[in-house]
Amino acid sequence: MDLRNANVSHRLFYYLKLLLLGSVILSACFILNRMHLSQFFPISTVRIYGAHHIEQKEIETVLLPLLKPGYFNVNIEHIRNELGELAWIRDSSVKRAWPDAIDIVLIEKKPVAYWNNQALLSESGDIFTPKRETYPVLLPELIGPDGQQIMVLNYFKDIDRLLLPLHVKMTRLELTPYLTWKLTLDNGMILQIGHKDILTRLDHFVKVYPKIVGERAKDVESVDLRYSNGVAVRWKVPS
To answer: CB count, 10 Å around CB of 80?
Structure first.
């Protein structure tokens, strides 16, 4: 028997087996694809972490259509993108968990104030408008021209630090259309600061506060800090 012919026949038989095996695998993949993997590997569990303000129903409305392709075909990145469109969501992480679950970690925006009585302002200066019923309560109000929210927020943080010795908080900070600053304290006092040397004038007020106002804060209607050499106090008229 010719050994060369035998080797050739053996190799041909080996290649034919590989082709047959490849055809079987391709056929199996085609059949499984035609039968829809989602029917055999559905997502039955979705675990959501980090949802504090956003409503569960709102999340479900986004997720349900996106989970239909099943465990293997679900588009993780698409889910992240769609969740990112929700007003409360700053970022998210979406992962498969074998054999039939999806784990979602939500990072919500952190609101620090109401903006122009119409929206919320996050700690990073993002304006967002979720459903009104999800708004937190007792946030300070920041008022200002559109596009100036970062500047207003920065002044709010600086002023808040300056007020620490007085043990008072701002309930409202406004940058008026005339670019002057006006703030309201939680004791009801209104401060008119003007448009220049804002922090310097306020720092001066904090230092003279004990002598000018002292224990009579509830009797003060407003304080005008726009004078270069002092402040003007308007006292409430006794009823």
So the answer is: 15
Q: Where are the domains of the chain?
A: 3-35, 38-108, 112-235
Q: Is 102 left (phi over 0), alpha (psi -120 to 50) or beta?
A: beta
User: Which amino acid is located at 92 in the chain?
Assistant: S
Q: Token digits for 53?
A: 């303000």
What pLDDT, in 10s, does the model give residues 152-166?
999 999 999 999 999
User: Which residues, 6 or more positions from 152, have their beta carbon under 8 angstroms from its beta carbon?
Assistant: 142, 143, 144, 173, 175
Maximum distance among all alpha carbons in the chain? 126
Please name which of 93, 103, 113 lies closest in space to residue 160, comparing C-alpha atoms: 113
The pTM of this model reads 0.80
Q: Are 46 and 101 in contact (CB under 8 A)?
A: yes
Architecture of the domain whose range is 38-108: Roll (3.10)
Of 159, 161, 203, nearest to 183 by C-alpha is 159
How far apart (Å, rounded) are the C-alpha atoms in residues 143 and 175?
Answer: 6
